[in-house]
């Protein structure tokens, strides 16, 4: 696709894989020489997106989640895709404190955290067919020039 570098990982929607994908994305982004804070921001956003797939998209069933990353200049671009139930009202779902799973003590802050820690967040979803969360993080843009 003309990106400087890219990767794609498909894995089971099991909570034990959340840590794996956080580390995989962190390792991939090291080529951009991120700060520890930038790595932590991305890891948090990835964790929230993957957790949404596990908890909401598949309702406990084990299916596949695909995480794709690519480098564009000094930016990490990533997407988290599921083929689950989809989101009927994306705007409502992205409101802070909104959750479809209050019985599981979900905070409803997943999308808010993604938006807080990433520079761009875009959600596409089709009910019955799944959701893709695309995120972008500029790495090093606030570092002082030497």
TrEMBL record:
Domain named Histidine kinase/HSP90-like ATPase is located at 37-141
Look up the domain of life of the source.
Bacteria
Gene Ontology molecular function, alphabetical: protein serine/threonine kinase activity
Q: List its EC numbers.
A: 2.7.11.1
Known catalysed reaction(s)? L-threonyl-[protein] + ATP = O-phospho-L-threonyl-[protein] + ADP + H(+); L-seryl-[protein] + ATP = O-phospho-L-seryl-[protein] + ADP + H(+)
SUPFAM superfamilies assigned to the protein according to its UniProt record, in alphabetical order? ATPase domain of HSP90 chaperone/DNA topoisomerase II/histidine kinase
Output the InterPro entries linked to this UniProt entry: Anti-sigma-factor_SerPK, Anti-sigma_F, HATPase_C_sf, HATPase_dom
| Keywords for the protein's UniProt record, in alphabetical order | ATP-binding, Kinase, Nucleotide-binding, Serine/threonine-protein kinase, Sporulation, Transferase
Does Cytoplasm count among this protein's keywords?
no
What is the enzyme's class at the highest EC level? Answer: transferase
Q: Which SMART domains match?
A: HATPase_c (SM00387)
Query: Carries keyword Nucleotide-binding?
Result: yes
List, alphabetically, the Pfam families matched.
HATPase_c_2 (PF13581)
Family that this chain belongs to: Belongs to the anti-sigma-factor family.
NCBIfam families assigned:
spIIAB
Q: Which PANTHER family match?
A: ANTI-SIGMA-F FACTOR RSBW (PTHR35526:SF3), ANTI-SIGMA-F FACTOR RSBW-RELATED (PTHR35526)
Q: Which HAMAP family match?
A: Anti_sigma_F
Q: What does this protein do?
A: Binds to sigma F and blocks its ability to form an RNA polymerase holoenzyme (E-sigma F). Phosphorylates SpoIIAA on a serine residue. This phosphorylation may enable SpoIIAA to act as an anti-anti-sigma factor that counteracts SpoIIAB and thus releases sigma F from inhibition.
- This one is known as Anti-sigma F factor
Query: What species was this sequence derived from?
Result: Hominisplanchenecus faecis
């Amino acid at each position: 696709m003309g990106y400087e570098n890219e990767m794609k990982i498909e894995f089971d929607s099991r909570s034990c894989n959340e840590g794996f994908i956080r580390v995989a994305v962190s390792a991939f982004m090291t080529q951009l020489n991120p700060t520890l804070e930038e790595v932590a921001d991305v890891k948090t956003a990835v964790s929230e997106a993957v957790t949404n797939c596990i908890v909401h998209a598949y309702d406990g069933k084990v299916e596949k989640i695909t995480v794709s990353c690519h480098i564009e200049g000094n930016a990490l671009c990533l997407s988290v895709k599921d083929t689950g139930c989809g989101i009927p009202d994306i705007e409502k779902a992205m409101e802070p404190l909104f959750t479809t799973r209050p019985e599981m003590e979900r905070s409803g802050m997943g999308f808010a955290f993604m938006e807080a820690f990433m520079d761009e967040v875009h959600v596409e979803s089709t009910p019955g067919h799944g959701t893709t969360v695309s995120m972008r993080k500029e790495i090093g843009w606030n570092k002082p020039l030497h």
